[in-house]
Amino acid sequence: MYTEFYRLKGEPFLLTPDHRFYFDSSVHSQAMAHLTYGLNQGEGFIVITGDIGAGKTTLVKHLCASIDNKKILAAHIVTTQLEGSDLLRIIGAAFGLKAIPTEKSSTILYLQSFFESAHEHQCRVLLIVDEAQNLSISALEELRMLSNFQVGSVALFQSFLVGQPQFRSVLANPQLEQLRQRVIASYHLGPMNRTECGDYLLHRLQKVGWRSDPSFDASALDAIFVHTGGIPRRINTLCNRLLLLGFLDDLHNFSAPDVNKVWADLQAENPMQALTQPENGALALKPSSTPAVDTEIHGRIAGLERRLATQEAFTRRVATALQGYFHFEDSEAH
Q: Which domains does the chain have, with CATH numbers?
């Protein structure tokens, strides 16, 4: 709805990762530099970690879109809890292989033959594993074993492992010492800074034909950064709802109070999130038996209840706007 209202060609703040919206912030540029370094080395493992919503998958999709597929055969998989033999078959399927054997030893030989065939055609095989923190120790060991395949001194298979911060704890397991020795570069993808947060917002709008409508006060951009901590997915969620508010209330300029209002609505929809310490450093509630802290907790809960009360009003505004919108459409049709 708001896309027509602001004359945009598409939705700028979709939550689904899309490499076309890739924004080269300082942290994303560093992460991309590590991946590019790995490509140039042609061997070993590259590890990229980052918090939920930091833009890891968008980064990976941007990398895949820039790879010369005549020189590198790349596949991107998203893992769940997989054991080694299951991962091997998924790898084969990711590269389009058919009739993959069910027996582990046969699957390994099948993959080796595929790697060697790619090498004969002057191609290298790259596997990018997303959500790598879900991999079991046995699955990671199978990846290490696949990295052993080579012709002469040329490695036939390379892996990029991308996951949430806890993946570093997984890698610290003593059983993975040999894999750790093959990690040639590692980087943690952190949040964007205040300036980049504003630039990121405008970048996404420009991708869908934005022409300064709506506009954003500096105070609005400050508030967006404070509430989201510079995490891309959080920015997308907040700004998507901000533009919806603009459509409902006929706004063409946003200020800090508008952002704060939307943030309050979002927190009201997820009360537990309101009690969690955000990355911007705001005070979090921690269990305590001291009267002062108990008073603070009760005060926060009371504030939370007030926020919940605003949700009904927001829902009514949406319902009224939708009724008016579809009534207008029906009138136009007649």
A: 26-189 (3.40.50.300), 193-333 (no CATH)
